User: What shape does this take?
Amino acid sequence: MIDSRIVITSGEPAGIGPDLVIQLAQQNWPIQLVVIADPDLLKARARLLGLPLEIRPYEANQPEQISRPGQLCVLPLSLNAPTHAGELNPENADYVIRMLKRATQGCLDGEFTAMVTGPVHKGVINQAGLKFSGHTELLAELSHTEQVVMMLATPGLRVALATTHLALADVPKAITQPLLEKVMRITYQALQHQFGIQSPRLFVAGLNPHAGEDGHMGREEIDVIQPVIDQLQQHKMDITGCYPADTMFTPHKMAQADAFLAMYHDQGLPVLKHVGFGKAVNITLGLPFIRTSVDHGTALDLAGTGQADTGSFHYAIQVALEMLEARRINE
Assistant: This one.
């Protein structure tokens, strides 16, 4: 791909993020990948993994260059404290936040055409006194985006979420008609413009068991969700529901829909991760740039062992490339 440059944040330094970018650097890519990381961390981890690594310092003003296997283009960012594979250190929590801020600003400025994020550890970031509920929320804040949508995808299945990292008790009151209208519009338009689906079909889950059973198990479907679906259908959007979540992901419906909208995190994502764990990607819709991410955590027990699976990271880059191509065609 010409005139494209993807920035990769290597994630929690004690986790498998550095391992994965080193492993991915052992192959050819049709695009320039720029990794934000501490070069000394990458060199040390490459020695642990027994993999060759030649670091090329990133230069923003230089033409895009495709790396050869064993090479890695690195935008250097220094750790606050020494790190060891598998051992979290709160002193390095700020390193992770600085990494995300640099990548976001680069995307907003047009320096990078897309962002792929490695796994971070929310617990250690909050332990260090930095409020952090997840990539999705931070990237929305940094880019001054009012509403974003978290979507996870694997081959054959896309699941967007109306709410993300909320306690289950807080979900019903968070689901409002204005929120759902924004989420459905963002999801539908992203399917058109970022996934290249001219007439997408979006299936929407109800909140309650059996989608409320005609109001006998809750009225959110009748009072909140269905009116939004009806309104958007009048705008020629192929959005249907409310479907009971326990039967929404049957093979028949999966063959019909281009994406599903779940009302909360654990309503939709267990199905997706069962279908595609290890080859799934987290996508933030609604941002002014393309952002994809791995679907797994930091796997501290695997850091430095060479046993980390690159499947999800590889797929996150692949999906970013596909979204860039769809955007190019639509422009």
Summary: The chain is about 40% helix and 20% strand.
